[in-house]
TrEMBL record:
Enzyme type, top EC level: hydrolase
Family (UniProt): Belongs to the HAM1 NTPase family.
Protein's recorded name: dITP/XTP pyrophosphatase
Catalytic function, reaction form: ITP + H2O = IMP + diphosphate + H(+); XTP + H2O = XMP + diphosphate + H(+); dITP + H2O = dIMP + diphosphate + H(+)
Amino acid sequence: MKNIWIATNNVDKASEFQEMFADLGYKIKTLNDLEDVIEIEENGSTFEENARIKAETLSKMVNEPVLADDSGLMIDQLNGSPGVYSARYAGNHKSDADNIKKVLDELKNVPKEKRTCRFVCALAISRPNHETVFFKGTCEGEIAFEASGANGFGYDPIFFLPEINTTMAHLTKTEKSKISHRGNAIKQIKNNLYDLF
């Protein structure tokens, strides 16, 4: 079984990647598999910049190909916020519940037709002696009026999918990976997988 390094210490995100790559015989390794715990500072102004920073930093450390993702929620009514600040929208303590509460408060009196949003995922693959390459995936939806569902993580409980009349947090990992922003970006990588890893 081959390894794919993912530049994350988010166990939920790592689990999603494992689900997506398992059928191809790849095992996920993350920052949590390093001997020393490291935190890579994400100070880019776009999802692509942050993904590049993470991928190139870890690739230099392990001298192997590394996949990094930076993703977030963009809400039209909030001019694209929370965007690259999605994980720490309510503060640097990174609480999903607080982030959700902040979004719901900001959209308190906004009608359904103006609650459009999308999840965006930028993936960067950094390989020794190669240029970093990028893939991007999106998933369109609306912000629900209240949180619902116990699966997933992040903003999934308020990310409403009109075509299936439920939030992302009601989907299984397999169902989510078929339609999610990360799943859509991973599909592009799978088509080029053996050239990249």
